[in-house]
């Protein structure tokens, strides 16, 4: 067996391992929904206590969406006397500040404690959160992005989950839904990704391993605890992933409140999507590299799992898929040429002919497509109104379009991170996601 054949076999085996991990998480999520839907509570019951919550909204040039978000927060089903709002217009060059003021100053909201702060500091979103941490008086800090409109009971369910085990839970996160998913094909694809991630991946990991990951929005974290672990990493491209690792390293859990929902706006153009996801990917890669050492020290097992999972997903499995795609396309092209020129040899083969390779590649292809569609279908079925013929059609098309775009973003991001280290350049440049009017 030569080197090329070895690489081919390793790529195929890697995809099988990735498929196995995906199935494990899928089965866990399916079990959760089958056992939870029967017990799903339709009513909001009074809590034993209502801790004071400081809600922080970082907003940088968000005039298009900020007013709707602030109104949604003002209308949360939570005792208003137990709310403190810290609303930041962070280094804005637009009308964000005035838009916030226009909502906060309404007579019906005057009984809610709200500070509107024009900030000129550094550190991006993490810098805003650290500034808020220094003045917050709430027992828990709740974070909502400027485009995230929480459902009226979202905060109630977050606090309800936190009160189940306040000593063990350092943070609690909810789910996010796409509020503009009907806009175009791209937003429908993003919606499928979000539904799959929220309804399958997050649920499966929490149900099976009690592993949670803080999203960028719709979560609460204990104020004293986040101070104890040093707050957020200023300038981090993905401050949510970075602090998730900090929380796990401390031994605390990040609990999932599956019934807490917020509606966020997603990119409506390929350019906006590409730049947003490239920033996310680079930020996650940097966090992985910073935490790689925990694979070999005495860290808690959950952080070891997360490091392994991220490394596997973003580096190992992505590389295997890229190699598999190259093999597949190259062989298709050379096979087509050989029909007209019999002397042309298939580039990548195993054994004396191509039967073995063709069978393996075909099995791989069916496995990946099958698991992908199964995840999407179960995710859609678990969320009211999402299991439609149109969404199922989009899911099938997105596999050969949108899903492949993510691989391109991942590869470009890996190269960019490597060049940042080699050339000693600053790779923390923040890309502001473009907002779109409803």
Structural class: alpha/beta
Task: Assess the beta-strand content as a share of residues.
Answer: 5-15%
Main beta-sheet strand count, sense and barrel state: 8 strands, mixed
Helix content: 40-55%
Radius of gyration: 23 Å
> H/E series, N to C?
HEHEHEHEEHEHEHHEHHHHH
Distance between the termini: 58 Å
- Report low-confidence residues grouped into runs of 5 or more: none
Main-sheet strand order equals 3-2-1-4-7-6-8-5
- The number of helices is 13
Estimate the mean pLDDT confidence.
85
Tell me the number of strands.
Answer: 8
- Indicate the overall shape: globular
Protein name: Glycosyl transferase
InterPro entries: Nucleotide-diphossugar_trans
Pfam families: Glyco_tranf_2_3
Family: Belongs to the glycosyltransferase 2 family.
């Amino acid at each position: 067996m030569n080197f090329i054949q070895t690489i081919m076999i390793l790529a195929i085996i890697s995809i099988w391992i990735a498929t196995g991990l995906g199935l494990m998480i899928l089965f866990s999520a399916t079990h959760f929904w089958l056992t939870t839907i029967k017990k799903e509570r339709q009513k909001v019951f009074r809590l034993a206590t209502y801790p004071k919550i400081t809600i922080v909204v970082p907003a940088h040039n968000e005039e298009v969406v900020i007013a709707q978000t602030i109104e949604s927060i003002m209308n949360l089903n939570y005792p208003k006397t137990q709310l403190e709002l810290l609303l930041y217009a962070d280094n804005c060059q637009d009308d964000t500040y005035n838009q916030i003021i226009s909502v906060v100053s309404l007579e019906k909201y005057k009984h809610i404690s709200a500070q509107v702060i024009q900030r000129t500091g550094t550190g991006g979103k993490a810098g805003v959160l650290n500034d808020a941490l220094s003045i917050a008086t709430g027992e828990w800090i709740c974070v909502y992005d400027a485009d995230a409109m929480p459902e009226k009971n979202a905060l109630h369910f977050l606090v309800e989950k936190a009160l189940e085990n306040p000593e063990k839970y350092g943070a609690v996160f909810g789910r996010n839904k796409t509020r503009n998913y009907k806009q175009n094909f791209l937003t429908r694809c993003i919606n499928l990704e979000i539904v799959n991630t929220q309804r399958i991946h997050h649920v499966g990991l929490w149900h099976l391993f009690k592993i949670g990951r803080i999203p960028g929005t719709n979560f609460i974290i204990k104020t004293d605890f986040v101070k104890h672990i040093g707050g957020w990493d200023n300038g981090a491209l993905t401050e949510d992933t970075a602090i998730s690792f900090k929380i796990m390293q401390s031994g605390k859990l990040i609990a999932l409140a599956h019934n807490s929902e917020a509606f966020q706006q997603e990119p409506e153009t390929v350019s906006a999507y590409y730049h947003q996801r490239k920033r996310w990917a680079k930020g996650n890669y940097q966090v992985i590299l910073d935490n790689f050492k925990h694979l070999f020290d005495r860290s808690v097992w959950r952080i070891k799992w997360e490091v392994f999972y991220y490394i596997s997903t973003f580096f190992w499995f992505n590389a295997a898929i890229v190699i598999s795609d190259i093999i597949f396309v190259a062989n298709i092209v050379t096979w087509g040429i050989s029909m007209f020129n019999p002397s042309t040899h298939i580039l990548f083969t195993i054994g004396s002919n191509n039967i073995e390779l063709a069978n393996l590649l075909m099995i791989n292809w069916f496995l990946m497509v099958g698991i992908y569609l199964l995840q999407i279908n179960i995710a859609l079925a678990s969320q009211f109104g999402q299991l439609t013929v149109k969404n199922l059609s989009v899911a099938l098309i997105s596999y050969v379009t949108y899903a492949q775009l993510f691989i391109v973003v991942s590869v470009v991001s890996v190269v960019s991170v490597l060049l940042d280290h080699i050339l000693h350049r600053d790779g923390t440049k923040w890309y502001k996601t473009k907002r779109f009017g409803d």
